[in-house]
TrEMBL record:
Residues 33-271 form the Rhodopsin domain. It is found in: Membrane. Belongs to the SAT4 family. This is Rhodopsin domain-containing protein. Pfam families: Fung_rhodopsin. The lineage of its organism: Eukaryota, Fungi, Dikarya, Ascomycota, Pezizomycotina.
């Protein structure tokens, strides 16, 4: 029996293909630059780099399914589609639901690993991040399994020409999973803020650092838009009701990848800027001047090699110096330690002043040897 003729919805076909391809390409480029930045700064990759890569690869599954749906009648009412195109589009919708929670879980946990390397020296922050990682892993597992078995047999979701049934409240389940994802995104966004605002720096510098880390709010916006779009989601007419939801799903994964990689790209920008303006190469550093490497914070060792510094190292060093100098007498002096936060051209210096009475004034290298 010949398939009946149907007319493609050119608007949704074009939008679906162009938007998801552009943002998937941007996410891929950003991740490639992240890996290049890690290579030129420390010559090694970290766990969070691999986790982000896995999340990006999984997002490609949703991207491909969305593009295929564009050729199978997205935006066209189901009753106007031939059976083959209708089943193919429903299958694409089913596939997208499998890649979204798994991709977002890897991306979020990658970001958590990154935040842990920066702010994990504070026990309360570390506990929050560790607990959130477990919650995200459980959420992704529950979402994936429920998505697979929401209908029995599972193929009944996209092919109704067989005996089967689906669980009640499917749309409410999708909205619940999306709401939990939004809460996770919001918590990840807020966890670093108290630490940043307790730094002894100028107000404008705190605002600048907060702005850089708040780029992740774009993911929250897309997650919210996706939840709102589910209100118009019709399981009996996926071809005409799932177009915008599929686009938001792909955008959420791609923007999350981009926002998770951007804070780590400064080594790339600095490398090319130093070549352009003729200043010293990126790798050159002074033993007294902290240097940005991979991540927001770093400090140079005595030999010139850089090592990662946590925010609390400043307080830790000052405390150790004060305890070693307690009870001694001599000239009143001021010991100063500092750490640097460099964010895309923004340098934030924090300092702590401690009055001690040492027998002699130790230099910075001697302080480091006492501590280490």
């Amino acid at each position: 029996m010949a398939s009946r003729e149907w007319k493609t919805n050119e608007y949704w076909k074009t939008v679906s293909i162009v938007v998801v391809l552009v943002f998937a390409s941007l996410a891929t480029l950003t991740y490639a630059l992240r890996m290049y930045a890690a290579r030129i700064s420390s010559s090694r990759f970290k766990v969070q780099d691999y986790l982000m890569g896995i999340g990006l690869l999984l997002s490609y599954g949703a991207t491909v399914a969305t593009i295929l749906n564009a050729f199978n009648g997205v935006g066209v009412p189901s009753k106007e589609l031939p059976l083959a195109e209708k089943n193919s589009l429903n299958y694409g919708s089913w596939i997208i639901q499998k890649f979204w929670p798994t991709s977002m879980a890897f991306i979020k946990i990658s970001i958590i690993f990154f935040l842990r390397s920066l702010f994990g020296a504070r026990p309360i922050v570390r506990r929050w991040l560790d607990g959130l990682s477990v919650i995200i892993a459980l959420w992704a597992t529950a979402a994936l399994l429920t998505n697979i078995f929401q209908c029995w047999p599972p193929s009944y979701y996209y092919n109704k020409n067989q005996k089967g049934h689906c669980m009640p409240g499917q749309k409410q389940f999708f909205m619940a999973m999306g709401s939990l994802a939004l809460i996770e995104d919001t918590v990840i966004l807020l966890i670093p803020m108290p630490t940043i605002w307790t730094l002894k720096v100028k107000l404008r510098q705190k605002i600048a650092v907060t702005f850089i880390l708040s780029l992740g709010s774009l993911v929250c916006v897309l997650s919210l838009l996706r939840i709102v779009e589910f209100r118009r989601f019709l399981l009996t007419d996926l071809s005409s009701s799932s177009a915008l939801e599929s686009i938001f799903t792909c955008l959420e994964m791609n923007i999350a990848t981009i926002c998770g990689c951007l804070p780590l790209l400064r080594p790339v920008f600095r490398k090319f800027l130093t070549r352009t303006d003729g200043s010293r190469s990126y790798g050159a550093s002074s033993a007294k001047q902290p240097n940005f490497q991979s991540g927001f914070l770093s400090a140079s060792s005595r030999s010139g090699a850089s090592e990662f510094q946590k925010l609390s190292d400043v307080n830790f060093l000052a405390t150790r110096v004060a305890s070693k100098s307690k009870g001694s007498s001599g000239k009143r002096d001021e010991t100063r330690t500092s750490s640097e936060i460099e964010l895309k051209g923004i340098e934030v210096s924090t300092s702590m002043h401690q009055e001690v009475r040492p027998a002699s004034i130790p230099d910075s290298d001697e302080l480091r040897r006492h501590v280490l």
